[in-house]
Amino acid sequence: MRSMEPGILVFVVFRVATALPVLRWPLAGGLIAIGGDLADLLLRDLFGIGSLDYQLLDKLLDQVYLLLFLVVALRWSGIERQVSVALYLYRLVGSVLFLLTDERLLLLLFPNVFEPWFLLVALLHHRREPVTWTPRLLAVALVGVTAVKLVQEWALHGGRIFDGISSLEFLDQVRRWLTGGG
């Protein structure tokens, strides 16, 4: 077994470190963890980690922050907790199937709806009055978070719109668009 490249170690430590704040601050920590998940592509490109099987490592590291989200969600009660556990397990099944087959379309069939559900509930916990989850409100919330997540999953794994471009190239294109320059 070859030794781990320093860049990969930084990559892993970064992802774990950005997941930990959720244990103290569910909403802010959840946003930090998701930001860390998005920013890891930039780290990969900055360190030039060519030997990295990004999809495999990303899905494994996703389980770190998702498991910490679940730890927090298990502190909740009622339907919030039940839905959280079900959505976590659903995505876990999809992630395991993806890791076994390397078929990215499975990630469309098992979208990570747990993530936006977690953020929604964490946000709602900042209200003075607790939410009364009626069947209609629950359905609307689940349809909404599922729709948002399906668009993202399709862009990443169905349409693969970022596969042909590095994060550094993408940021350069954004910079040029914002500045109107070339």
Can you give a write-up of this model?
Helix 1 packs antiparallel against helix 2 (26-47), helix 1 (6-19) packs parallel to helix 3 (54-73) and helix 4 packs antiparallel against helix 6. The N and C termini lie far apart (45 Å). The chain is 73% helix and 0% strand. The protein has helices at 6-19, 26-47, 54-73, 78-101, 106-109, 114-124, 135-158, 167-179. It has one domain (6-179). The protein is built from 8 helices and no strands. With 182 residues, the chain is mainly α.
Summarize it.
The chain is mainly α. It has one domain. The protein has helices spanning 6-19, 26-47, 54-73, 78-101, 106-109, 114-124, 135-158, 167-179.
Task: Summarize the helices and strands and which ones pair or pack.
Blueprint: H1 6-19, H2 26-47, H3 54-73, H4 78-101, H5 106-109, H6 114-124, H7 135-158, H8 167-179
Runs in which pLDDT lies below 50 for 5 or more consecutive residues are none
Helix content: over 70%
Counting helices, strands and paired strands, the structural category is: mainly alpha
Q: What's the number of helices? A: 8
Strand residues, percent: under 5%
Biggest sheet descriptor: none
The total strand number stands at: 0
Report Rg: 18 Å
Q: Averaged pLDDT, please?
A: 87
The total domain count is 1
Shape: globular
C-alpha termini separation = 45 Å
Q: Can you write the helix and strand succession as a string? A: HHHHHHHH
